């Protein structure tokens, strides 16, 4: 058990360190709250109902639970630090789901707006993080999008990152009630839809060109949110798959859920039935394969190949790029993965991903795309 936990922590740390080294993110600075915060402005955001058109009877039954029943909410926007290519706006809005943990009931987002957004409406993307919730990878992806003209909204998932309950109270709760994982995933999707609504309400954003992307756990939730919402312009799940129950019973990273299930006598099949209302495969048919790009690892030790294949099939055989390594080894390809994600969001053709060995010792030279592209350097 100790060895398994150590391996999991090292894997997550590897992805984080690679993101820092290759992207030079400056994440700590981005996360700091100024000593004298600038004045916030509040906007009223229209909240569209969940799209039901084309849903199967089963999907329609589950989709109703994602509709908040509200048609507007308020969001606060506060200017943050700026970069040559983008400016940071801190966005916060209430989660439509109120949990026992106050820190989880507000969604604190980071919006990276391209400098040209004031002159013309730009496309946008919701960005989701990996399991550890540090946001290094998510911020690197968001900054890269903004540098090339795509506004990016980093949305922390429920109970992750700044929304993590004090003292790990949620761990004890979900260990006692593993079936409540459904509520956590549903809350995250509802929060994402509110984030999308905020983007659509901003004058700088083209409301018809809002996409979504995420890595690992964020990729799985990307697939789920895209299927539930049914209106995202571009969908890029990275290192993701379907059949969440199979992943939970397979991956080291989900051992808490697996152990809680075993303690309660819950089998993988029973967990799959419980998770059916929030299973990406349940809603995958609502994602247009022409608007989806999957990026996966050929030797993924976290997401079983069958889970990747199941999601690919359920969406309808979308374009898929594969890196020839495992889940954590994919960190070496993150600059290329990010550039392909940006290309797809902008409607550019995407090609295969390959690792290009650095020709100099600087961080920025590692893993650049082999074809001429704008620099994928991250936040500075």
From TrEMBL:
InterPro entries: AB_hydrolase_fold, ABHD18, Cro/C1-type_HTH, FrsA_esterase. Gene3D superfamilies: alpha/beta hydrolase (3.40.50.1820). Residues 257-275 form the HTH cro/C1-type domain. The keyword Signal applies. Residues 371-380 have a biased composition (Pro residues). Residues 358-380 are annotated as: Disordered. Keywords: Signal. The keyword Zinc-finger does not apply. Residues 360-369 have a biased composition (Basic and acidic residues). Pfam families: ABHD18. Residues 1-30 form the signal peptide. This is HTH cro/C1-type domain-containing protein. It comes from uncultured Phycisphaerae bacterium.
């Amino acid at each position: 058990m100790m060895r398994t936990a150590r391996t999991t922590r090292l894997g997550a740390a590897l992805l984080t360190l690679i993101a820092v080294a290759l992207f030079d993110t400056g994440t700590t600075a981005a996360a700091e709250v100024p000593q004298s915060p600038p004045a916030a402005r509040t906007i009223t955001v229209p909240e569209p109902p969940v799209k039901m058109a084309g849903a199967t009877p089963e999907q329609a039954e589950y989709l109703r639970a994602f509709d908040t029943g509200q048609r507007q909410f308020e969001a606060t926007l506060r200017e943050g630090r700026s970069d040559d290519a983008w400016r940071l706006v801190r966005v916060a809005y209430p989660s439509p789901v109120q949990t026992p943990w106050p820190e989880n009931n507000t969604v604190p987002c980071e919006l990276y707006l391209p400098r040209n957004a004031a002159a013309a409406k730009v496309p946008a993307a919701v960005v989701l993080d990996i399991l550890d919730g540090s946001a290094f990878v998510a911020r690197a992806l968001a900054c890269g999008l903004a540098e090339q003209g795509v506004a990016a909204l980093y949305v922390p998932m429920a109970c992750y990152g700044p929304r993590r309950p004090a003292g790990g109270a949620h761990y004890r709760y979900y260990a006692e009630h593993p079936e409540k994982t459904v509520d956590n995933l549903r809350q995250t999707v509802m929060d994402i839809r509110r984030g999308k609504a905020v983007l659509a309400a901003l004058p700088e954003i083209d409301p018809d060109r809002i996409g979504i992307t995420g890595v690992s756990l964020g990729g799985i939730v990307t697939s789920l949110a895209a299927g539930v919402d049914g209106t995202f312009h571009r969908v890029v799940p990275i290192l993701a798959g379907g059949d969440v129950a199979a992943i939970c019973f397979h991956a080291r990273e989900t051992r808490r859920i697996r152990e809680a299930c075993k303690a309660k006598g819950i089998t993988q099949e029973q967990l799959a039935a419980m998770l059916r209302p929030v299973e990406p495969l349940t809603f995958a048919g609502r994602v247009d394969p022409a608007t989806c790009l999957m990026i996966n690892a050929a030797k993924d030790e976290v997401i079983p190949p069958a889970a990747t294949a199941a999601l690919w099939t359920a969406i309808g055989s979308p374009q898929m790029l594969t890196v020839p390594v495992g889940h954590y080894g994919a960190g070496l390809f993150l600059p290329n993965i990010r550039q392909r994600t940006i290309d797809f969001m902008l409607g550019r053709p995407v090609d295969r991903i390959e690792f290009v060995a650095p020709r100099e010792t600087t961080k920025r030279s590692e893993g650049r795309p082999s074809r001429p592209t704008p620099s994928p350097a991250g936040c500075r």
